[in-house]
Amino acid sequence: MSDDLSFLRKQARTQRFTLGAPKEFRVSPDGSRLLFLRAESGFDRRNSLWALDLAAGAESKVVDAARLLPGEEELPPEERARRERSRETSGGVVGYAVDDGFRLAAFPLSGKLHTVDLASGEITTLVEAAVVDPRPNPTGTYVAYVRDRRLRVVDLATGDDRALAEEPGEDIAWGLAEFIAAEEMGRARGYWWAPDGRSLLVERTDRSRVPRWHIADPANPAAAVNTVAYPAAGAANVDVSLAFLGLDGSRVDVQPGDWEYLVAVHWSAAGQPLLAVQPRDQRRLEIHAVDPADGSTTKLRTETDPHWVEIVAGVPAWTTDGRLVHVSAADGSYRLLIDGEPVTEPGLQVRSVLHVGAEVLFSASGEDPTQIHVYRTEGGKARRLSTVDGVHVGAGTAEIAVLSSWSLEHSGPKVSVLRDGQPVADIVSSTVDPGIEPKPRWLTVGERDLRAALLLPSGYRPGDGKLPVLLDPYGGPHAQRVLHSRNAFLTSQWLADQGFAVLVADGRGTPGRGPAWEKEIAGKLAEVTLADQVDALHAVAAEHPELDLDRVAIRGWSYGGYLSALAVLRRPDVFHAAVAGAPVTDWSLYDTHYTERYLGTPQDNPEGYERNSLIADAHLLRRSLLIVHGLADDNVFVAHALRLSSALLAAGRAHTFLPLVGTTHMTPQAEEVAENLMRRQVEWLKRELAAG
User: Fold this and answer.
1) Domain count of the fold of the chain
2) What's residue 80's pLDDT?
């Protein structure tokens, strides 16, 4: 059956060929086994929980999601929001947590709270109501979870289930990460167990001052409006505070500071809880230790930058012997420091810290930013664990590391387990073969050595004639498109096979090339990111005469959608048509943490917002523009597209607007819609380029 599916239909059904890949690895304390999630096949959305015995090399299923939940999932709104923030599109067991002894795992399934005894395999349903983020305490005697925006705990010995903090009001939440933390700071958790399992450090949020935005469903006018608290640039953020809540009913509030953003929290037996915090302007990041006895804080480290201090996932943290681990921008690089001493050399860009124990496991890029490798610390230096070219995703610990390796040589990941850097086992990956083998031509172009990839139609030969050009970028902060992985170019190759020369380029602001490279976009999102796409196009065309510069289009989603609309508005001399998917058109409508990092607030920098937004440029449009936007988007609201469309109409500028019913910021998941949307884009681009 799968062979009969078109590439686009198969891509949608397999969630971009990620279903069936193992993920979410946890290593037992003795290093003898590990847990992970994986679906039964590359077409199955439901993840089950699996175990791997490293000595025997044998896999076994711990929780069978299909047996436990044969029907459709029913999720609470908070869980749906959490999945939207993490871009989680699969189902079944999508997350789990274990106690320190690796005896008990807790997980939600269809909103209900379950535990599984990892020795016997016995599954218990603890809570039938809708739950979010269940986690056992380190000793495996209690399980905490969030329900109705309140943190609760279940005593596994007695079954007693109670709220730890009762407080009236829908605007108050205990134990939930706020929107900004989950969407922009990479923090999905809102509570942390004490190492002894007798108390928790809990986030309290108050969203009463945050503006309320409303998302209606025009296709179903009888449906209730979804009202969300959305902190748009310049508006009030959620008020965030912390408290230690004891299982004995005690409460100790953490001393408030002059910070607005709670970036990260770490609590282990190696030291006091650690907080990473930032003020509103993000030009400072402080690391504090907190005393659980009285809530007082001690500042341990301060990082400053005239533009912003970048957040690196996984830090701060203590090593098991109590040394502070963090990442600092120094010597033109993001360097890993332990107790203030750098353990990575200049030129190695640390991307994330994956685990901190006796040693540190982390990911980084070297001279080639298109590759990501996994490293561990060893003797005060960094040792690379991944040995082949590609994009390697690490998990586990420095001693027992799991590498999911994506490359140009194969589709899907190859997953291996290393003990002290040596392979000891492989884990089956059941992803579907896309049936397309991208053939990117790797390029370094222009005076800034922009990394780019050019894809031509399969079977194209020199002399076959000029090709219309399609730029296919993201182009903004925190995301790369030019990566040493086959899966990164599947859609681009399919587009090339429709008769285009497809160019993918990463400009300034994209990760992997150091702090200075990323911060060249400060205050100049539009100017810098568009200039780099134009420079890449012209540099590649100078070396590849098959590119027809009289027929150039650009397409993208999210920041890529912004960049696409920007291209036809400001450089009609270069671009002749654009497809702008879910574009930010007015930065004052986007969230605080992301937008203010680059532009400050609208109150302090109105000219900057005007200069980097699209609405005021509507009268400049003289090329073809197709705007696509999901009506249920709660990240880049459809107001962005509607306001641009309205301004274009008022200026008498023809354009096409395609609303997607029921679609959020994630691209459409329904197979028919996903396929037809892409085909309509191709037909539209060909028609408009021919007409132009």
Assistant:
1) 2
2) 72
